[in-house]
């Protein structure tokens, strides 16, 4: 870069950081060199965590999975690649990515990924099973766990008394579903069910509430994620709610975190919290009530079969085990999304096998083990029972191979070279390990 270019650098930096799309650039070795503010927001990373680390390390990806690396290797651009995933902060994100190789004087010097965050848009696209479906009622809520049973019991009570309700739970736990079920449980029935989505940041929608809601009918108003509104907007909403009075309406709100914490850190207005909290209903994350996973899968497959005549009606034991072990940061929505993806690709299969799971899910869950082997397992201690030598050597081999693979970014050729063995031999041992893990 000459001096003139360098003096323009603050302009470039400003423009990149202000851009409404995520920008991630790597140099020819795969090191991150640009990672703008929007990309940080999308992927839930901070710049310090990203700088000077390869994308393989960052995202725990293998080479086939990373579009940036694929483009770096092939030199061919990839356009309009849609990805849905749960980012570092556990938020569901859908992006459409364009990834370009960058050449300078005919030499490939890096690659740039431009990501458009279409998460909000995606929310408007209904899942196939919810399209044209019957009104949502408690009969559709899967509640095998004690936690979920208690949620349903309290929610029914709230519908009977018509007192305001505050639903508390992570994204995808079913707050929306419970809100709509409460509305449809009310007897005699309320008029319209309005959802006020607080995910948006403009204030005009609160100003328009007086016009948009028909205050002459008895309605249900669900204020979805009030904790995402700024405090001045929460104040505005609170004033509006007080001005219309309760007069038979059902008021429901949802928040994504513990209210005490939210009030403490200034993200939730105390008055608004008290307005809604006649009934505070906490919906636990799915990882804390795994009994609900398989009933949900069965009910999903049954509904899909009925509606679309698909042949899937169960899951293989190894998939079942994986589903029960996985933590589901995106909760039921993540599970539902995964089932949508698998079933849309299925043709004549009747059972969901491991091989039918999408690559991104297999990669996330690969190596998940109840007791992953740790270095400390090889230390011989007087109070520890000794393992038979065979077992010890097998565990040591597994540990050593895993570490060696990680060191070489899961590259079989490089790892085999470093360990002084053939690729085939390494592949055979890795396969054996994987099968042995069952
Ligand atoms: N217990 C359940 N039984 C059946 N379906 C469920 C259950 N919980 C969640 N779902 C389904 O999972 C998906 C996500 O649920 P929902 O949209 O209600 O979550 P949410 O907590 O409102 O998420 P967000 O905070 O992101 O708005 C929906 O399609 C919903 O029908």
UniProtKB/TrEMBL annotation:
- Alphabetized Pfam families for the sequence: AAA_lid_14, HTH_8, PAS, Sigma54_activ_2
Q: Which UniProt keywords apply?
A: ATP-binding, Nucleotide-binding, Transcription, Transcription regulation
Task: Write down the Gene3D superfamilies for this protein, in alphabetical order.
Answer: 1.10.8.60, Homeodomain-like, P-loop containing nucleotide triphosphate hydrolases, PAS domain
* InterPro entries per record: AAA_lid_NorR, Homeodomain-like_sf, HTH_Fis, P-loop_NTPase, PAS, PAS-like_dom_sf, PAS_fold, Sigma_54_int
**Residue intervals of the PAS domain:** 23-79
Family matches, as SUPFAM superfamilies: Homeodomain-like, P-loop containing nucleoside triphosphate hydrolases, PYP-like sensor domain (PAS domain)
PROSITE patterns associated with the record: PAS (PS50112), SIGMA54_INTERACT_1 (PS00675), SIGMA54_INTERACT_4 (PS50045)
Per the database record, which ranges form the Sigma-54 factor interaction domain?
141-344
Q: What NCBIfam families would the database entry show? A: sensory_box (TIGR00229)
Recorded protein name is Sigma 54-interacting transcriptional regulator
């Amino acid at each position: 870069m000459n001096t003139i270019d360098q003096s323009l650098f603050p302009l470039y930096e400003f423009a990149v950081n202000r851009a409404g799309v995520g920008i991630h650039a790597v140099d020819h070795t795969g090191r991150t060199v640009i990672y703008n503010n929007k990309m940080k927001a999308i992927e839930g990373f901070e710049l310090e965590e990203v700088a000077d680390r390869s994308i393989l390390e960052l995202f725990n990806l293998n080479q086939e999975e990373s579009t940036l690396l694929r483009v770096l290797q092939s030199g061919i651009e990839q356009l309009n690649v849609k990805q849905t995933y749960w980012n570092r902060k556990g938020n569901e994100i859908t992006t459409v990515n364009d990834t370009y190789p960058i050449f300078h004087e005919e030499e490939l010097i890096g690659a740039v990924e431009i990501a458009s965050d279409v998460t909000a848009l995606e929310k408007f696209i209904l899942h196939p099973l919810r399209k044209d479906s019957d009104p949502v009622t408690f009969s559709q809520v899967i509640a095998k766990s004690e936690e979920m049973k208690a949620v349903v019991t309290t929610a029914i009570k709230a519908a009977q008394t018509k007192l305001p309700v505050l639903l508390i739970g992570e994204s995808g736990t079913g707050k929306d579903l419970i809100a709509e079920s409460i509305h449809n449980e009310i007897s005699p029935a309320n008029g319209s069910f309005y959802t006020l989505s607080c995910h948006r940041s403009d204030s005009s929608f609160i100003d328009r509430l007086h016009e948009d809601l028909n205050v002459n009918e008895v309605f249900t108003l669900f204020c979805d994620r009030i904790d995402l509104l700024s405090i001045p907007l929460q104040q505005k909403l609170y004033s509006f709610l007080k001005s219309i009075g309760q007069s038979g309406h059902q008021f429901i709100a949802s928040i994504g975190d513990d209210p005490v914490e939210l009030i403490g850190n200034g993200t939730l207005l105390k008055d608004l919290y008290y307005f809604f909290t006649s009934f505070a209903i906490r919906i636990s994350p799915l990882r804390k009530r795994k009994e609900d996973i398989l009933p949900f899968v069965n009910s999903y497959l049954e509904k899909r079969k009925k509606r679309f005549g698909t042949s899937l009606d169960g899951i293989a034991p190894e998939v079942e085990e994986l589903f029960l072990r996985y933590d589901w940061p995106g909760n039921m929505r993540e599970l539902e999304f995964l089932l949508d993806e698998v079933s849309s690709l299925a043709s004549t299969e009747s059972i969901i096998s491991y091989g039918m799971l999408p690559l991104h899910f297999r990669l996330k869950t690969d190596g998940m083990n109840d007791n992953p082997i740790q270095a400390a397992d090889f230390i011989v201690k007087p109070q520890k029972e000794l393992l038979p030598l065979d077992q010890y050597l097998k565990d040591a081999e597994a540990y050593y191979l895993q570490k060696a693979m990680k060191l070489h970014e899961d590259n079989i050729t490089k790892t085999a070279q470093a360990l002084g063995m053939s690729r085939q031999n390494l592949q055979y041992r890795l396969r054996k390990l994987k099968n042995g893990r069952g």
